[in-house]
Amino acid sequence: MGRRLEGFLWILVVLALGAAAGFWRSGARKAPEAALPAPPTSLPASPGRAPPPLSNRAAYLPAQCYAVTQDTPGGRVHNGCFACHQTPRAPNFTDDADVQMVLSVAQSAAENRWTNVLRPPAPVEMPKGALLAWVRTNNYRDEQGRLRLAAALEKPPAAWDGNGNGRWEGYTPDCWFQPDAEGFDRAPDGRLSGWRAFAYAPFPGMFWPTNGSMGDAFLRLPEAFRQDRDGRENTGLYRINLAIVEAFIRRVDVPISPTDEHALGVDLNGDGRLGTAEHVAFVWPPVPGRSFHYVGKAAELDPDQDGWPTAGLYPRGTEFLHSLRYLDVEEGEVRMAARMKELRYMRKTRWLTYGQLQLAAEAEVLEKMRNPSKLKTVLADVERGVGTGTGWLMQGFIEDAAGALRPQTVEETAACIGCHGGVGATTDATFSFARKLDAGKAHAGGWYAWGARGLKGVPEPKRADGQGEYAHWLEQVGGGDDYRSNDEVQARFFRQDGSLQPRAVQALSQDISTLLMPSPRRALLLDRAYLALVKSQRFERGRDVLLGAPPKVHPRLEQEGATGIESPVSPGWQTPGLAVRENGSL
């Protein structure tokens, strides 16, 4: 707990940084005078309606937190916890690295209610031909190319109409999942939707295709970021704004086409003068007097409300869309299927400064200290979704028993906020875009969908210490998923003594598909196992598919119990000597 309390010492530093950023971002605008009160941790309930009861009041605590970390006292430890719970990178101030060593859960969350992990339903028996026909059926677009879910939401049934007004007031899907050569999504008539596909290195563990699913990810910035100062659509300016966001989220320089900085009035390449820029420079902390801001219509937005280019933060109004899909097998190759299991949506509704985020995180630590058994209160509704407490709304759609997409229940969506609402590994409550493939090396600058080009040939991401990220994760966990149930990865990558196969690790460094993609046989078994969850419609009991050895998972946790892990594993971004700077002085 002492590590978390250290953050208080940096509040004044963070607030001072906010003041410095005020001079940098515009010169004419004054910086915020003080941090505003922390935002509420969730949405208010619909007027006149009580929040829906949850069968699992700790639904935000993911099933992976119940994975066994030590088979026998004094035996080898299996640390999958570090992937999420780690020393954060400001402006994420949730330092939860201690969770790797101590099971810091509320007493009422000790019981593992993810019973689909403990006792999964029997896989659906279905002939291969029928199964392939099922996963190849598009449940997002119909035969005429129209968006099925958007049409269904025009007149929502009573179960979807949370406030009973006859209208759907949440996100209505408007992405066609038809990206062009640059990743820009286009409607059948060629119109741009604003969404842009990006490829990224999947987060370690259960999110790999070998553990069940693939999916495309899309990002969209608000309309002003896609327009010139006269309000006309301008894809060139949108590319630059996206490059600025990428530079400040990934904390790297991002190449762009040669751009006249004079015309935009902005020093994109950070050389201190206006000329021709061929990259957006990541310069942080901000340089006083540097002319730097978003371009086009976005340059006219109020930075105190909508945000400005800041390390680790997206502007207000940023949206993410992520499809989660079945696996298809064609000519002996596994690829992403047309059928969606889920459609996940996030929208940033509020701009919060470093100081505000710091105070909110420290307030949560104090509340945890005062009331260690108090659970988070989830107030939300089926239409608008659930708030993360960090300025974002999350909403999701999932298959019904017949395979059509429907809005998730509040409890089904609450399962998402445990990771997106407060762990050390996130960047502004998100995972994927900070892991986008490098713009200077990847195909199409990393702006493409997995459906257009698979994982084959993508090199393994590296940690700051030079280790391969995935190999390092495998070594720490001792298996191919958090529960060590993936027999296929176990056979491919581990020797009898539990050490890694050197040849497999070498191949992985050059091609992540050697680890992440399952065999055709496993892919179809995963599909059958997940389809059983769909037929049961008991997603509140868990939606992870475990296939292979019996999962090593606790039916119950010991509150404040030791995991057997003696010291926390450092995050991949951190190198020796940088810990204080990244989390304090910046």
UniProtKB/TrEMBL annotation:
Taxonomic superkingdom: Bacteria
Q: What protein name does the entry list?
A: Conserved uncharacterized protein
Q: Where is this region: Disordered?
A: 563-586
